[in-house]
Specification:
single chain; about 270 residues; alpha+beta; Immunoglobulin-like; six-stranded antiparallel beta sheet; three-stranded antiparallel beta sheet; 3 helices; about 30% strand
């Protein structure tokens, strides 16, 4: 794009702005033209060089030559090598495009995976995810449990937590000797509400441990994220009570804790 300023035109502020605009356009056009020429030189230097070398070689072998002879050798050589070079550039560009598309595909997959993980994490904050809780009677140095400590386990909060504590010794006694409609005597119900990760909820209780050397409890929890079960086992050792407990959902153990000194069986395990 080339612009001319007509000589003799009166100079005003507006015309000065137009001259400055025309000058900028000329500079921009020249820069664009240089860019095109550099690209042409980049892509056609090899065909041009090959055509010159091949033509020079053929002229050197022929004693007499003319412009027609030069053109008959140079033009086909130039276009043939140009075609080969264009195929080379095309294949290389296609490889770059395919590599770029593969990188984009990988980034999209990674983004989708991260989005799925964040979506699942957000849903877990609403439902509770895989979090659970477990309880222990405190203190356990006497035969009366006056407080229950409920401890959260997991990354996400638990909502609407309810527990049904079953005293297995009382349950077995009722099962053997009393009508089954007395099973409620072996059960205690608690509502713990919402539990925050990393926190412990302490609630009052009144559970007699009796004079036995062992006490066994099963605790059945329900929460917004489903149900899970805790097995709590006490053993009297040196006048005090030691405990072992594990929390499971189905056949999967989610948490297990054994107090040091808790009696083990012959195989080194715990009789749950």
């Amino acid at each position: 794009m080339v612009f001319f300023w007509k000589a003799g035109t009166s100079y005003t502020e507006g015309s000065g702005l137009r001259i400055e605009f025309y000058t900028d356009c000329m500079i921009t056009s020249q820069a664009h033209l240089m860019t095109v020429l550099k690209q042409l030189l980049k892509e056609f230097w090899l065909p041009l060089l090959a055509a010159i070398v091949w033509t020079s070689y053929n002229i050197w072998e022929v004693p007499q030559w003319s412009i027609r002879t030069v053109l008959n050798v140079w033009v086909p050589t130039f276009f043939f090598v140009s075609w080969l070079a264009s195929q080379w550039y095309r294949v290389r560009k296609q490889q770059k495009v395919e590599t770029g598309l593969s990188n984009i595909e990988e980034r999209i997959k990674q983004t989708l995976a991260e989005l799925d993980a964040k979506t699942a994490d957000l849903a877990a904050y609403i439902t509770g995810g895989e979090s659970v809780c477990w309880l222990i009677g405190i203190p356990v140095v006497s035969d009366i449990i006056t407080e229950i400590a409920v401890q959260h386990v997991g990354k996400h909060p638990l909502y609407e937590v309810n527990a049904r504590i079953v005293d297995l010794e009382v349950f077995e006694e009722i099962r053997r000797n009393l009508p089954h409609d007395h099973f409620g005597r072996s059960e205690t119900y608690h509502q713990f509400g919402n539990l925050i990760p990393g926190h412990t909820l302490v609630v009052p209780a009144n559970i007699s441990m009796g004079n036995a050397s062992s006490r066994n409890f099963n605790i059945f929890y329900t929460a917004r994220n489903g149900s899970f079960t805790q097995e709590l086992r006490y053993r009297r050792v040196n006048g005090g009570w030691l405990y072992a407990t594990k929390v499971s959902r189905g056949n999967i153990t989610l948490h297990e804790q054994v107090q040091e000194g808790f009696p083990l069986n012959a195989n080194g395990g715990i009789d749950w």
